[in-house]
Design a protein that fits this description.
alpha+beta; Nucleoside Triphosphate Pyrophosphohydrolase; 6 helices
């Protein structure tokens, strides 16, 4: 819809000037959906971790992958009723990677938006991440949520993560590991 027809259409809906600009950018169909079906907003929370180890002096981190399309990400998931964020992170990492882990520090959180148009819901999700070390288990024991779980050299892990906010989390993890190493506790974490 263009020109005079668009202005008439907007007047019929009594849309404000900002909506008029949005109509020009996105078209009237999207505005009708937004106006008539006001999406509710939900705020889910998840927790997960960056697991690392040293092999022959080389720092490695574990990533979880899906094969079609190839997509690498960090282990994370939703709390079970009554779980703390730390308990959720430990359980989700154990389930998704097959590894038994311990938390050695907090990496903060990320948040992002996504929608489920079929349910008319927008989600503003927050994911809390923790730095973790492996204390047992094996990646071949991961659950079926991911096709593959692999160890990557730290630099390769950063390059292979699909989501920019998870790259930021990985970089925070690597900085925290370096900080702990520089603290000279006599033992490398």
């Amino acid at each position: 819809m263009t020109g005079q027809n668009q202005r008439t259409y907007n007047k019929q809906l009594c849309l404000p000037k900002t909506a008029d600009r949005l109509t020009r950018l996105f078209g009237p169909k999207e505005l009708i959906i937004a106006k008539n079906n006001k999406l509710r907003v939900e705020t889910p929370v998840s927790a997960g971790g960056v697991v690392y180890r040293r092999t022959n002096g080389q720092l490695e981190t574990v990533l979880c992958g899906r094969s079609k399309p190839v997509r690498w990400s960090l282990a994370k998931g939703t709390p079970d009723p009554g779980e703390t964020l730390e308990e959720t992170a430990l359980r989700e990492v154990r389930e998704e990677t097959g590894l038994e882990v311990e938390i050695v520090g907090s990496l903060g959180s990320i948040d992002y938006w996504f929608s489920d148009r079929e349910r008319d819901v927008r989600f503003h999700k927050t994911v809390h991440f923790y730095l973790m070390v492996q204390v047992g288990g094996h990646t071949d024991q991961h659950d079926p949520e991911f096709d593959v779980v692999e160890w990557f050299k730290a630099d390769d892990a950063v390059k292979n993560l699909v989501y920019a906010n998870e790259v930021d989390v990985m970089q925070r993890a690597l900085a925290l590991i370096a900080e702990k190493d520089d603290a000279g506790s006599g033992e490398r974490v």
